[in-house]
Amino acid sequence: MAKSNLPTFLSLLFLITISFRSSASQNDVVASSICPKTRNPHFCATVVKSAATADLKVLASYTLNLAHTNAGHSLRLARSLAATVASPLLKHRYSSCSVSYGRAFAQIGEAQKHLADGDYLDVTDLTAGVVAAVDKCLADFKKPPVDASGLTKKGNTLEDLCSIVLVLADLLPGVRNDGIGN
């Protein structure tokens, strides 16, 4: 008679279920401790859930990758709009945003390198620079004519991502903002 593999299968299924629940609960803990400190907690929880990790450095890297992609798309959109829009005022705004997003894209790339090196203070400084660059673009569209292209929405998303990175960089061990090592 063939030996049943049912007990082995059930044991394996139990271990996978426990592992999944443990991972999910770790993500919930990370989200509940980090996200309330960000500018958009709901968005943060979505990012943490999609990252599927409780490792803060991996989560910061994941979020910086999302920010880098967003900044690249925003830069291409701003350049395209600056080249094609008829309104001189909008052309100037989109050109200015193109410069801002170019700066943001480069700073995120630098932040990724510093994160890999464990230099979290520079990650914080560079990410704050990204927020300042995006703010400059967004400020141009606070007065009419408004942006109908989605560039400002991309800017707000980029700032939400940077908000997550800023919280994470502050929590990572190493050099704290006061210059004292942990």
TrEMBL record:
<dbReference type="InterPro" id="IPR034086">
    <property type="entry name" value="PMEI_plant"/>
</dbReference>
<protein>
    <recommendedName>
        <fullName>Pectinesterase inhibitor domain-containing protein</fullName>
    </recommendedName>
</protein>
<feature type="domain" description="Pectinesterase inhibitor">
    <location>
        <begin position="26"/>
        <end position="168"/>
    </location>
</feature>
<dbReference type="InterPro" id="IPR006501">
    <property type="entry name" value="Pectinesterase_inhib_dom"/>
</dbReference>
<comment type="similarity">
    <text>Belongs to the PMEI family.</text>
</comment>
<keyword id="KW-1015">Disulfide bond</keyword>
<keyword id="KW-0732">Signal</keyword>
<dbReference type="InterPro" id="IPR035513">
    <property type="entry name" value="Invertase/methylesterase_inhib"/>
</dbReference>
<feature type="signal peptide">
    <location>
        <begin position="1"/>
        <end position="24"/>
    </location>
</feature>
<dbReference type="Pfam" id="PF04043">
    <property type="entry name" value="PMEI"/>
</dbReference>
<dbReference type="InterPro" id="IPR052421">
    <property type="entry name" value="PCW_Enzyme_Inhibitor"/>
</dbReference>
